Amino acid sequence: MTQPSPESPEARHRRGRPALSRLRPSVRAIEVAKRVVVGTFNDGFTHAGNLAYLSLLTLFPFFIVAAAIARAFGRSDDSVHAVSAFLETVPAEVASVLQQPILDVLQARSGSLLWLGALVGLWTTTGFIETVRSILRQAYGVPFSRPFWEYRLGSIGLIVGSVVLLMVAFSLQVVLVGVEQLIYRALPFLAPYAAYLSIAKLFPALALLLALYILFYTLAPKRYRQSGCPKWPGAVATAGVWIGTTQLLPLTLDMLGGYDRTYGSLAGVMIALFFFYIVGLGVVIGGELNAALAETPEAALEGPTDEEKGKVA
Predict the structure, then answer these.
(1) 140 has a pLDDT exceeding 50
(2) CA distance 53 to 275
(3) Vertex 27: Cα angle to 25 and 29 (nearest 5)
(4) What does the pLDDT look like over 200-210, one tens digit per residue?
(5) What backbone phi and psi angles, to 5 degrees, belong to 312?
(6) Which end of the chain, N or C, is more open, meaning fewer C-beta atoms within 10 Å of its C-beta?
(7) What is the DSSP letter of 1?
(8) For 43-69, what is the mean pLDDT?
(9) What is the pTM of this model?
(10) For residue 299, what is the DSSP state?
(11) Radius of gyration for the chain, computed over Cα atoms and rounded to the nearest angstrom
(12) ∠266-272-159 over CA atoms, to 5°?
């Protein structure tokens, strides 16, 4: 791990900086903004570039893993639904570049070839998870303390769990849509209440926010994960950057006249990388925001921390 942020909770504790609760609201907002800016500027742009590369590298293996797990549960169509749900959260230019290649890969994988690809894909995808873990530990100022394979096993569990959660979410979405159609066709007197079921249309955004929250919560250092330090602000900030980029990137490209004149036939790939770069920067900002709002747990004020002793993750 590179040098932790100078505004990390651990660094602030060593310098004896006052807790946010002791500051006036206006001063508190400025202090939080300062911590986020300093932490992001420290190594955020390097991390964003790494995440952009890893996003494009691990996207295909992740969907292969999702296809293998879905097939094991007899839900083969869920892998295609997962691709569609993901593509709804990215700009149309990025979706047009990624959609057909991903579907082609999923259709080409079957039987033992699918499972072999899933095993390789699990290891490849954990690299992305471990990069996010490194970003968060740098933001909190907490070093790694366990063997790398323990972290990798945890990342594999997180990936498998996310796929299972996706399948459950798809099932719920199908049920909600089915109930809504039943009300309109067979129970018209309940039509005024059917609007509440339109939440299914918000599924991509809600799934994105939930996935980011789980990511920030699970990968945060244990002592900050189990304390009262908030995790949702980082998820909301990252989701805001993601959705904002999805909406504004097409307009920006139109204003600039597109990337075709600069990158030619590779313009679509470059747009995808640029999108993932901005999203990666959003992940860094979200992690730094959570760390900026965190205070070192009181137990850490007495001598070495459990992390430093190598007893906990």
Answers:
(1) yes
(2) 11
(3) 70
(4) 556 667 777 88
(5) -135, 165
(6) N
(7) -
(8) 83
(9) 0.77
(10) G
(11) 21
(12) 135
Structure token digits, residue 279: 């999203």
Question: What CA–CA distances, in Å, run from 188 to 176, 178, 180, 232?
Answer: 16, 14, 10, 39
Tokens, residue 129: 């998870």
Any idea what DSSP says for residue 18?
Answer: P
Q: Which residue has the tokens 């904002």?
A: 244
Q: Judge contact between 5 and 294, C-beta under 8 A.
A: no
CA distance 96 to 100: 7
Share of the chain above pLDDT 90, in %: 7
Task: Output the pLDDT for position 117.
Answer: 66
CA distance 49 to 90: 18
3 state DSSP class of 7: coil
Residues 161-183 pLDDT 10s: 666 665 555 555 555 555 556 56
Question: How far apart are alpha carbons 302 and 295 in whole angstroms?
Answer: 15
| Token duo for residue 183 | 């009300």
